[in-house]
User: Fold these one by one.
Assistant:
Number 1:
Amino acid sequence: MIVVVGICAVILAAAIIIGLIRVLTARDQGSRAVVSDLIYFSAIAIVTMLGIAVSSSVVLDVVFLASMVGILATIALSRILTRGHR
Amino acid sequence: MNETLATSLVGIFGITGSLLLLGSALAMFRVRDALSRINVFSPATGLGMPLIVAAAYVFDLHSAGFSWSSLLMAVVAVLCLIIVSSVASNTLARSTVLSGQPVFRKTSPNRLAFPPEGVIDVDSEEG
């Protein structure tokens, strides 16, 4: 179980690093908003894999709540893009 | 549910989900503007994350046995990921267009550049 979860964590870490490079090199704000959302979900996936690795009992609750809250970041970023207008 | 079955299921779901997330991270480099990036973001939240939720559920099933509440939580998490994330992506796409982010110059047909036929553009100069 640990080996499998380790492989997933390495793949997700690579996804986060690629996303960070994309955010640094992106010119327009819209791309930064989208890639930061991708980094958010990759981080949630890594937290899930960590929960599985330490065999904690709240893994499902973490993913459940994080995917519900994920929309707030995206809505906030889109509101920032339009400078506060709807 | 014995150990090897749980490990292989968590592995299948987890690695596939992680590869989907990595794939959409790589796809962010191949497309050239914000709108297409929102487009290639959907495999990550539409299929990548639900697979990771499935991996978490299989692990929960393995460690804590079957319980209706965790099954309900997993199903609601997957539905939430698909519905809520697409609503968020639509909102982000709408604000990306409204805030005038640059569209890739080779986009053709670029329906955002010109109003559709038959629509009188009220504030166009020659109108």
Number 2:
Amino acid sequence: MLDEVSYTDVYDLGNKLGYLPYMIQRFVELIGEKETIELLKFNEKKLKTVIRLNNLKAQFSEIEFLLLQKKIVFKRIREIPEAREIVHSPISIGATIEYLNGYYMVQGKNSMFPPLILDPKPHEIIGDFAAAPGGKTTHIAQLMKNKGKIISIERSKRRCTALYSNIIRMGVQNTIVINTDARDIVKSKIKFDKILLDAPCSGSGVIINDPSRKTSKKEEDLARYSKLQTELLDTAIQTLKEGGTIVYCTCSLEPEENELVIDRVLKDNDIKLVDILFSFERGVTKFANYSFSPELKKAVRLYPHKTNGEGFFIAKMVKESG
Amino acid sequence: MVKTETLFIKASREEEQIVVSFLLKEFGTKVMEIMNDKSIFIKQRGVKEVYIVNEELKDTIEFIRNSSLDLTKNIFLAGYPIGTIHEKQFQLEVTGGFYFKKYMEKRIIVKTQQFLYGKDIVVANVKEYTLPFKKGNWLAVYGKGKKDSELFYGVGKALVGSNELSSAPPNTVIIKGYKNRPFDLGWYLRFEK
């Protein structure tokens, strides 16, 4: 229906779709009116189901064979060899015997990019901070061929249950799940080769999955998230070995939760941003009254309407040697 | 910090013996191939959950235990869970069946998926079995798909021997299903709810 109507006033469209006015104002400031309309329209759609094939359990060809037997139609996704977009399925994809055997994980397409960008190796010790429900932990384990070590940290005991279930279902054996606040991990003196910090966020990039976000967060909440994210990232940097890599990501589109957080930690720590080689939109260097380091152009923004997936911000940093 | 009462510690010699004796009895000596470079850990929170932990993770657990903030009390999972110890007996669970399935040579192949819903396997459900089994043996349960693809469904203890199957009534229970206990893979979905 939205396609049939020409909305010239983005604020009118935002109002009709139930967004708080501040959100529209910020989207316009970030990507302009025309693209904001595209984003709002995209958020009314339903994302295609995507699965990640798990070669810790079976070869991709075997899993594909089993899916085809069930008349599940899928297609490959160019940048992610392990991902398949479900085109048609006569049955619920999250309740097949193959799913229960851990042959695949139902997972947002764009959430597969942070582990790929982290590029974990089988001999390394990896930290996954704020790890539940485990899509990224299990993906990291897959990329490490179940070797090396992953320390997955999750503050919520309830969410640890989902993390536990996914880890064992996917056959992951190289992981320790610790139920604690990631900020406590500094005291454990563990030093990581690489860290993935998928920080808790306001979620403005995943309105397509959670329409309640149109009204559930006030503009003032962004500062609270930004403070927590900066603390978590500072902690993560402290636990990183010299020369180690950290990938910071959120599913928020708000610069206060993304570029501002990175800009702060760049000033206070011996770390530098490194280029992300996927061709997504680049991080912003100006927003409202903020001006960020030009280095932020090395970070990427995955806009939902441009990537046909969840919104993400991803930055990759390396800790410099003494 | 989140408060928990959990202990995650290396199994005592007695606990190790309970687990290893079970594995040798049910799966034969070959099973030790997989156990050689592993340790058995116990997570104690009321019941004793048994985990198989590799050397690298074991070292990390010890490192965490010896640091200024002992986070081992907060370990939710390390390595791979295989079952529980209750009243000095090891109880295999579906995760353990998965872990050792290569060594579980006594397999029963079923025609229906009802075991995945926590229901019993009765004589009428059985398509075939790989080796003769006795009452009390642990069996791996598989389903057979098209073109003979086999998929693991879970584990269970035989309530009757294979020699009784041909003469038993079709509704005779061979393996008992449990909705609230982790013996079949459908437990993952029930557990998450």
Number 3:
Amino acid sequence: MSAKKHTNSAYISHVHLKGYKSIIDTEVELHPGLNIIIGPNGSGKTNFLEFLHKISSAQPNKIESEFEVKLKFYFKNKNNEYTYSVKKELEVNDKTKKIEKKLKEKLVGGEQDIDSEREPDKSVNFFPIPNGFPDWKDLDSIIIRFGLPIKMQNLSQSLSFTVRVLNIGGDTNFTYTSYEFSPKITSGIEKILKDISSSIVYKKNDISINSDLSFDEVKRNLKKFTPIKSVRIMPKLDLAKVNSYYRADYVNFEFSVENNWLKWNQLSDGTKRLFYIISEVTLNDGLCLIEEPEIGVHPNQYDKILNFLKEQAEEKQIIITTHSPRTLDILEDEELDRIILTRYDRELGTKMRHLNEAEIKHAKNKEDGLFLSDLWTWTSFFDEEETVI
Amino acid sequence: MKRIGIVSENYNNDSIAVGRLLKKKYSDQAVFVPLLKSISGKGLDEIRKVVKILKDEIKQKKIDLLILVRDLDGLTSEKKKINTIESWAEKIQKQLVINPQLFIVIFELEAFILADIETFNKIYKLKYQLKTSPKFQSEPKELLKQITRKSKRKYKESDAPEIFQQLNFQKIYQNHKGQNSFQSFIKELENTLN
């Protein structure tokens, strides 16, 4: 999983954050692909993920803190890498004595150098990424927290959606709209419904679904990495025509586990979380932030989830927090710089760092037959301070 | 300053407790480094694994001496049990094959608490008087649990680090003597330290 293998066109490469919850002033480099954050409870791992989610979900103006975020863009066709940095600073105006927010942006690489300074525009939620750069969806993040979001529980209810029919050049085009009265659902499930609606084929009053769906990728991953061997939507999609719209009601997901078709509320909590992780990560093209993917998952099953995340990380940036030592065993020797250690210091707040050279050397030269998980479990290798009496 | 590693059946209780007790006497000669986090008594019997981890720990933490602490679960006169533990320690010693080596095995931490029963009484607000020598108490752990059964504070094994912090080193040295005792262990340790 070297950097060259990654096909990410955009990823967060550097974060310098001041004054966000437990984080007083911390700076960390991030890699494309997989990044693993470890550290004791209360060290600030979740706060960091939360910040990344806000910053990459087009909500930078909702963050009062000072920060500097560097994004790297890679254009395959030009074989060029650009670094775009956004820095938000709070400065006291000498005349008015008021605190002013300044947003500084800088683009390095190529011919489109930018170096400007302005006040953050509250009407614009997005970073002012220059024209011609990858779409924000490349960076747009999802955050998978502990347990299941309430929205996910709504899968036990019937869903509805409407499809607007557009006739363009003789072809019938269907566009998804969430139905006002349908229960709220996660972005992953919504993407599945959109995907289905955009693949509807309408011929001679007969409606069918094109089989080439990105939802199929979710199904393949579920089959490969979880006990869920298939997913179907029941009853068979039936659209009722209302003026120029079609409406689908009573849309229910069913899951094949151990050769039985089960409804959402018949799945175990662990299986529900597996579906949640697989569907959200598969369907998100941007940054995936995951809190403790091991929670509620059997160790053998967790190995499969780690394989899934490693495979997905070839195409997208994935940052996970974990308390599971076996997570580290998926890293090759040359990937040890993907581990980020966090600790909380009463005066300095959350501090983050990578393994230093001596630690990497130690990890590479550990006794034959020992894994990184052994060092984490049995020794104080990953502890910030050695226990000495 | 020597760096003395401590391995026991419970890192958080036993290793820390022993380290705290020894520090009272040897703080100017040594520091004590608990090793093998998360290990259990059964885990210590996985000799090959234990040796691999110990090799790594000894090298990385520059350990000069190693103290192995194991629960006897019986009297120090029970030869068979002692032989089993000694044979285990020998196997570890043989497989480690790195210098410096010194292995001292001591038994039944709760017997040390009995050896300074006054401090225990003070912590648990008791007036218990020991009827036999602490070394001849067959189940010291059970005894401590039994005598605190009706107390406001009941003895738990996780109390060990706090208790050992307050125990009187000299009293234990005087009261726990003979073969396989605290006193014999300390003499052996001092021979090596000096």
Number 4:
Amino acid sequence: MLLKRIWNDRLAALSLTIVGAMLLIGICAPLIAPHPPNEVNMELRYAGASWQYWLGNDHLGRCVLSRLIYGIRPSVLWVLAALIASVFVGTAVGIAAGYWRGRVDAVLMRLCDIMLSFPGYVMTLAVVGMLGPGLTNILIAFVCLKWAWFARVIRTVILPIAEADYVKFAKVLGASQLWIIVRHVLPIALPEVAVIASSAFGSMILQISGLSFLGLGIQAPHAEWGMMMNEARTVMFTRPELMLAPGIVIMVVVSSVNFLSDSLQKALDPKLMVIRSTNGMKHRYQRKEAALQQ
Amino acid sequence: MSLLEVKQLKVWDSSTEQVLVANSSFQLAKGHCLAIVGESGSGKSLTCKAIMRLNQAKVQQSGSIVLDGVDLSLLNKRAMRGYRGKRICMIMQNGMRAFNPSRPVGAYLGEVLARHYDWSKEEKLTRIGAAMTSVGLKDPASVMRSYPYELSGGMLQRVMIALSIVMEPDVIIADEPTTALDAVTQFEVMEQLAKLRNRLDCAMIFVSHDLHAVKRIANDVLVMKDGEIIERGTAADFFTRARHPYTRQLITAKQSLSRQFNQLMGGASVAQG
Amino acid sequence: MSLYILKRIGMTVPLLIVISFLTFVLNHLSPMEPVKVILHAQGVPTITEELIAETKAKLGMDSPLLIQYMDWLIASLHFDFGHSYVTGIPVWSMLGPALLHTLKLVLVSSICIFGLSIVLGVICAIREGRWLDLSVRSLSFLLTAMPAYWLAALLAWYFAVKLDWLPTSGMSDGASYVLPVAVLVIGYAGLYFRIIRSSMLSHLNEDYVLYERACGIPESIVTLHVLRNAMQVAITVFSLAIPTLLGSTVVVENIFAWPGLGTMTINAILSRDFPIIQAYVLVLAVAFVLFNTLADVIHAAMNPRMRREH
């Protein structure tokens, strides 16, 4: 039903196809890439496009296309994995807060507040700074930072519903409350989680490639889009075309993800569109409104 | 001799080409009150806004709207602005939402008056103050100082009525002026509207789905459904000899409701309000 | 109102304490012991157990965590963030000038960002659905999806190398601001433009706008009134934009060799210079909390209801 509505919007369908294709290509990278991504071929340094190397070769004569394809793995797939992990952590915390309530709830939610009051980029830098550069550490930083969003959403959805009649009814029938939450309440929170997750996805892809570009992310010789641009940077002024391909790929993927997120939101709740684009602000603003009304 | 004459008014949504109000024509004589009745989405409000040319940009309109010999649909923006507020006054449905939340009521009224009259500050204050007292706002000075959220819906409704008293328009358009109010305030606001009509001797378009209110104030009635006028006639005819099945349905629904109410209240005469 | 401000400032104290503690503890999460890092940095060839214990005692690292935290906190309040592990220079003497440089960049960019997004937001809200609105929106959509460093590289290549109009890097005169500011504006204006636009739109559909028009108020004045109300949300968002920008200049500074916070921090991260990283996180977190408070106060001051009741 939801998928069908998104499919009906032509641009959204295109975005979905692009994102889907990216994921698929990334998973099947060894089958699709024409050359091994780390195969050095000094004779072909800075070679232009040819039939054998569609997008040319980089400063070590490596195939740019193959590196792009392998780059999907850290740039998109691992980011997705980190996102899913933070959804899981957030869900667990949210359920815990909604299930036990009381003091547990208060402590967990204050913790969320603190996490949310930190600027994301700075925290990522802090974690990477302490744990040292590397893809794994960035992913850990992402999970540490993003779970609070999901925890909050899940809890907000769970609390009123846990009181609702049909949950009480199920309780009378003898189902355990935890099971009720997992079975009946979680699906209700799913759409909003999907919206937040998808809008975070785009900025995470940008961030991870940015950090790799700065040399804080994945280490050479592994292929990653930000890393590829970092390598192209030394010859930025003489051979700007080397920066072109990874940049365009990032732009296409991120705008598809963002567009998908927008249409997902439109399909789910058109009214929310007004406050969109400012996840943080939305949360803050609502709290403020609530405070005003008291 | 009619004061306002609307001919072949058509309103449509230019983005979807959907016709919202189809070829409606009606007239309004000086001192008369025309009620437009119909369910929500029937095109009542769109018709009112079309008269003032206030529909959103994507909503377009054609047809002529002649007020006192001048076709409003041909006026330029500036001239049209001179008509709004001065010759045609609007009274909005929800007083609580009709005023800019971050400005005191008095500042707003002052600004509107300054648009249309070059009165001194004192003159503006006396006139508005007198009008406010006449609609039952006891302390005009404090009302003027208040922000909209500090006043009740009924009070703000009266502020709008007071403004139209000062403006002395030819036509007042009241778009469901009582819908958002509780029963007692509804009664009082209706009182004020009736008084206003007698006092200014202006014409009024009264949009409502409250047939009680219509019966009280209107001379003529239009019934709209899905953007079309399906029934028109005098108020007396409307309640006794409605032809269109939809109108009859409206009236019976209202009658059975009040009958039920009367029964519940033990047949007392409470329901006459 | 002043009571509200006092209350609001009072609320930040516990938050600041928690944040400073977290920042402090971060240091201890590192898989590598700080003492070893120091010794490495000082070029000590062989690190013995005694040497570690000795250095620990010298730096007060053998006392309990809480005591260390208190010492650190009190020192930090005096802008004493310790010495760099690598160079031995006091952290503040590096952080202070860097912060100033970054602040300059951020202030210039945020003024441009706010100006641009207000102008575009208002115009697009008034012309909702027309070609101008659509094209500005699609453009901003594309530009927000563009990696900042990529855009920076392209601009630098075109304007600094190909046309040779602007300097590629450094912070010498006014011209060197152009490219970094342009990159920041392009990257962030889209977000704030969208907030202004949607806030304007939601207000334009309010009844009070219809009533103002119905009373014959000219469109330009109605727009001003709407803008004033729409700004209530925007001001909050804007005041949070400044600390966010402070933390996001990293990439831009790196590309244009801007001697600011970002450049300093990246170098510190690469050489594991913990005191600098710690000070950076603390300064930005405090800035974030302060601007957050400021946002709330401004929001309250603009809202008549809050103004009256407090």
